[in-house]
Amino acid sequence: MIDLIHVTKRFGATTAVDDISLSVAQGELCVLVGTSGCGKSTTLRMINRLIEHSDGEIHIDGQQIRAFREETLRRRMGYAIQSTGLFPHWTVARNIGLVPRLLKWPQARIRERVEELMTLLGLPVSEFADKYPRQLSGGQAQRVGVARALAADPDILLMDEPFGALDPITRETLQEELRALQGRLHKTIVFVTHDMDEALRLADRLVVMDQGRIKQQGHPLELLREPADAFVESLLGGEDRGLKEAALLPVSERMLPLSPRLLARERVAHDASLREALSIMLWRHAERLTVVDDEDLPIGELSLRRLVGAKAHE
Ligand SMILES: Nc1ncnc2c1ncn2[C@@H]1O[C@H](COP(=O)(O)OP(=O)(O)OP(=O)(O)O)[C@@H](O)[C@H]1O
Ligand SMILES: [Mg+2]
Questions:
Q1: Closest residue (by CA) to atom 25 of ligand 1?
Q2: What is the overall mean pLDDT for the chain?
Q3: What is each CA distance from 182 to 43, 257, 283, 312, in whole angstroms?
Q4: Which atom of ligand 1 is nearest to the CA of 212?
Q5: Which of 33, 137, 181, 207 is least surrounded, with the fewest CB atoms within 10 Å of its CB?
């Protein structure tokens, strides 16, 4: 869906992006991470042509990006940024409806779409539709920014730290929403974040950048288990990598069938992560947990030995 082939961007003497190649398949969620100034935002903005690349080629659906008309790009790509970029003198509803209006959708359809998105993002229409950006909290404004990016139902979403100002609970809700959206509608998403837990949770493909170059890319588990070098390893969390890996693996991965022994008192859901299971063990001083299904019925057990990956029988 998106191909960057030996792409370089120079600003005068600065090389912001240095010969990167990257392919994002349709329906894939690609996350760019890296230290400040490594070229993440520049990469994103070259994809929607807010910035013209200096060298190399960028293709969307096999077509040179330079061949696209501006309107086509706008329709196909949603763009959400941390600072939201909302128009201060426009109401929330008008801001969200920006692209559909540029695309000349009928009035009624725009209104319907705006209300649908506000509901999806937890912004009650009666309360927020007529507010102005300055009357919103940072998190509310960010949600308006995300709604605006989704408005014309683009097949590509470019998101530059879109959840930066949100509290952890809203943030997690929106992460799940984004995941669901991508699963259901097969959106292709390129997402920039500084939050490694967010990156690991969201990414099908994780791309680590440093000084304008791509250091390593692959599935999060791949990078956690085999970081290419010390930089990638430390960016991914250094000694914390074990916990970060455990956060990505479900309890069902290490669960054993129920044994004839007494059921352990403490329980964990089969679809919880191994990290959550470990936390329960620590908190409850328990070395064994009963694994339960969606109906809360016991289906297996998990011991500390199994959790840490010991292969031998107990
Ligand atoms: N318009 C510009 N003119 C000159 N230099 C620029 C311009 N935009 C970005 N740069 C430089 O290009 C480099 C990459 O910037 P970019 O914004 O892509 O980094 P980033 O990875 O998004 O950083 P952050 O995590 O801080 O947002 C930086 O050194 C920056 O100073
Ligand atoms: Mg940036």
A1: 36
A2: 91
A3: 21, 34, 35, 39
A4: 14
A5: 137
